[in-house]
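Morning F.,

Quick status update on the modeling queue. The single chain you submitted on Monday has been processed. Sequence for confirmation:
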Amino acid sequence: MEIKYTKQFLNRLEDIFSETDYILRYEKGNFQSGYCVLKETKIAIVNKYYSLDGKINSLLEILKSVELDISGLSDKNRKLYFEINSTQLQF
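Structure tokens below.
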């Protein structure tokens, strides 16, 4: 899968979160990896001062590391989610 570092691709990744039970927030923070995932409360927090590339890479890592209920995903987002999880991403 080819990663496009554009605002549109970031919006597509954010759409996946909006259709699941995870809450995505952009906050300032001192996260070592640029993001923090609270799995019990299903909240993903990304450093809001990250560049576009950093935000996209963080969201991709989060999507690969958490279990999502994909029953609520639209066909377009489900296809993207499976592409992300089935390929080895290279940043």
